[in-house]
């Protein structure tokens, strides 16, 4: 069985600047994986590559064994791969509900997510549905960004730095929602700078540094000192 997503020797460039150097990761059906690493390690570049925002060589990214590396973002989304981007990128002039509806544009077939089920997941969004998205708190905006991605009924949810800058109580709520999203059978990739949080939720963890995977494994098999070295570099 091919993996749900596999990257093979993935490289990525911004002009002449190389941000990824041969990244190999895989995501299996129903799995939650975490990608950890310090600022600038390449985590967002990896998410942008898999979601089609950065176009790569076709054979460098496989979806169920089929090359998708050169597909543009809308075509990737139509394959059931949705991104919650770093910084949320909500539509400022739209209400909460309108932002959620935008996510439904990439919808393929039936699935568990509708406005109603997203409001069940994040009840505060129902109360605020007619407010401009940018009038919400940071945590609530993050819920809109997650809801918007879910509206396409993705099989794979890519979440870039969803807890950055949020209060611990809000982070707890957002991670509680993840266990419900997981229960629908979706596979999830979480990009996290918080190592402890990543180890808590992920089936497997990849650590990145300077555009390379420096460590990977199941949280229970990883040694704290090895993670520290893979994250910050050897002292
Ligand atoms: P962060 O947590 O800060 O977002 P990251 O691990 O997600 O870090 P990336 O954003 O993927 O890292 O950045 C990887 C490298 O690519 C960094 O050296 C960064 O400066 C560079 N980079 C990222 N975006 C661009 C861009 N649009 N143009 C040029 N270089 C970029």
TrEMBL record:
Query: Mind listing the GO molecular function terms for this protein?
Result: ATP binding; ATP hydrolysis activity; branched-chain amino acid transmembrane transporter activity
Q: Does the keyword ATP-binding apply?
A: yes
ABC transporter domain residues:
5-235
SUPFAM superfamilies, sorted: P-loop containing nucleoside triphosphate hydrolases
**UniProt cross-references to Gene3D superfamilies, sorted A to Z:** P-loop containing nucleotide triphosphate hydrolases (3.40.50.300)
**Pfam families, alphabetized:** ABC_tran (PF00005)
- Extent of the signal sequence: none
* Record-level GO BP terms: L-amino acid transport
Which key words tag this protein in UniProt? Amino-acid transport, ATP-binding, Nucleotide-binding, Transport
**InterPro entries tied to this protein:** AAA+_ATPase, ABC_transporter-like_ATP-bd, ABC_transporter-like_CS, BCAA_Transport_ATP-bd_LivF, P-loop_NTPase
Q: Which family does it belong to?
A: Belongs to the ABC transporter superfamily.
Protein's name in the database? ABC transporter ATP-binding protein
